[in-house]
Structure prediction request, 94 residues.
Amino acid sequence: MKNTHNIKISSFVGIMAITIISFVLMDGCKVPESIANKSGAQLWGENCNRCHNAPDPKTYSDDQWDAAIEHMRQKAILTDTEINKIRAFLKSAN
Ligand code: HEC
Prediction:
């Protein structure tokens, strides 16, 4: 009788642990709110002037931005979300 009770408790603890771990893991895959709330223009202003003056969107055509962004994504170590927002901003403002 006592044993059955213990098994129930331990499976409950196990399920709770799995639930908590899954929440933590899912959260890790979400885009952090600090990035999700930022516009491409903001991210451009914050990231693209760390090493040089942030280039004017008008400097390049869409195709040239694609090339430059690929180049700078490696230097700036930005996430896909950040770089996609910056790219969209640059192309909308050139
Ligand atoms: C970690 C430093 C660093 C960051 C952050 C950075 N850049 Fe650069 N960028 C450089 C360096 C160094 C050069 C010049 C040498 C070279 O081209 O490798 C450069 C050159 C450029 C050029 C000239 C063309 C080219 O492709 O070389 C453009 C355009 C440019 N950056 C845009 C950006 C944009 C847009 C961002 C923001 C997403 C950015 N950079 C962020 C370091 C950086």
Remarks:
- The chain has two domains: 1-30, 32-94.
